[in-house]
Amino acid sequence: MLLRSIALLLALASSPAALAATSYVRAGSLVDPEKSRVLADQLVTIRDGRVVAVEPWRGAPMDGNVEDWSRYQVLPGLIDMHVHLTDWNQSSNVAEPLLHSAMEIAYVGARNARQTLLAGFTSVHDVGCFRAFANVELRNAINRGDVIGPRVSAVGAYITVEGGGGEVTGLSPDVKLPDDMRAGVYKDENDVRLKVAYLFQHGADSIKIIATGAVLAEGTEPGQLEMTEGEIRAAVETASRRGGWVTAHAHGADGIKTAIRAGVRGIEHASLIDEEGIAMAKAQGTYLSMDIYNGDYIAEYGAREGWPADIMRKNEETTEAQRVGFRKAVKAGARIAYGTDAGVFPHGLNARQFKYMVANGMTPMQAIRSATTVSAAMLGWSGDVGAVAPGRYADLIAVEGDALADISVLERVVKVMKGGEVVK
């Protein structure tokens, strides 16, 4: 009997439930974006990398380590819905993407991922790279634990018309791009279906289509429609059959409305959106990801570094127009996700956009919700990220000060936890 009792105790002790390590975080204050409130002096209980309880602090528990963040305001890990981790940063040289091997880009991506995570962004939507599937492989490396970085949803490559906003342009006509830089270039509607299927077959989580021209692609115009409604719908239908979804790069008003009619989940940039487009986005529940900090960075840094005049002109034509559209979209109650276009500006500076959002009509809580609950919903990850709540990953950040009084404190994150592991 004694031996059987000892054997039972040993079996219980070695069971997964018994082996599950429990840890804790004491939060001086905790921002709850789901209920738009701030809770004072909270204890977050973590097991197997996920939150199992959030309750008032009543003293230190005895069964696990307590991270003492009582000096700080704690928030859910932030989400950036528009990053480019696996490309060289934007430069004055239109041929820059050709100067870096796939191997070099892998290392660059690892560096960018680390900078992004340490800045407090624990999840990102990587919406494209010139070297096809570089972001998919970076996601896989992070998931394996080979490198540290945020949780990544990756698109694999751009779906773009030949010579369009998703291509490397501005080169001599006799320069031939390598095949891995043209994986998503299509010829017609049927080819769109084939390219989208190809991306999913090789690990894409979602699809990014280039519906209009781009500010940063020479020879294309932001207001010019580059994909037909039928082509965009073909991408949406194919993605849906694969369990995925589509977001559309679209600056121009016509491109925005065409993409919404075709059923995309999100619109990137939305620089020249009009009131009809805002109303359509609200009615359809389409997310707007508007990078309203980016224009100032391009204007300042691009001028200093001698970026092409064509790019600087287009940036000037879209920057203020985008902010006007943003203010109207906020007022109308449209869904606005937090997307910055990091990679045009240096990774790790993602939080600079918060103060722009507040200056252009959002309350600080709305801006925080944009980078947490709203972006989590756009990703389809609401059950895993976007809040510090039971069942979610223990992705937490801490700041000194009060983000609801001064949103810029989010630019100075002092603590980062991902999946229950402190990384900063």
The CATH topology label of the largest domain is: TIM Barrel
Please give the CATH class of the largest domain: Alpha Beta
- Overall form: globular
- CATH homologous superfamily name of the largest domain? Metal-dependent hydrolases
Task: Give me the CATH architecture of the largest domain, please.
Answer: Alpha-Beta Barrel
Number of discrete helical segments: 12
Helix content: 25-40%
Radius of gyration: 22 Å
Task: Write a compact overview of the structure shown.
The chain has 424 residues and is of the alpha/beta class. Helix content is 35%, strand content 22%.
What can you tell me about this protein's structure?
The protein is built from twelve helices and 17 strands. It folds into two domains: 18-77 and 386-422, Urease, subunit C, domain 1 (Roll), CATH 2.30.40.10; 78-379, Metal-dependent hydrolases (TIM Barrel, Alpha-Beta Barrel), CATH 3.20.20.140. β6, α4 (134-144) and β7 form a beta-alpha-beta unit. It has a seven-stranded mixed β-sheet, with no helix packed on it. Strands 9-8-10-11-12-13-14 form a seven-stranded parallel β-sheet. Strands 5-6-7 form a three-stranded parallel β-sheet. Helices cover 35% and strands 22% of the residues. The chain is of the alpha/beta class and 424 residues long.
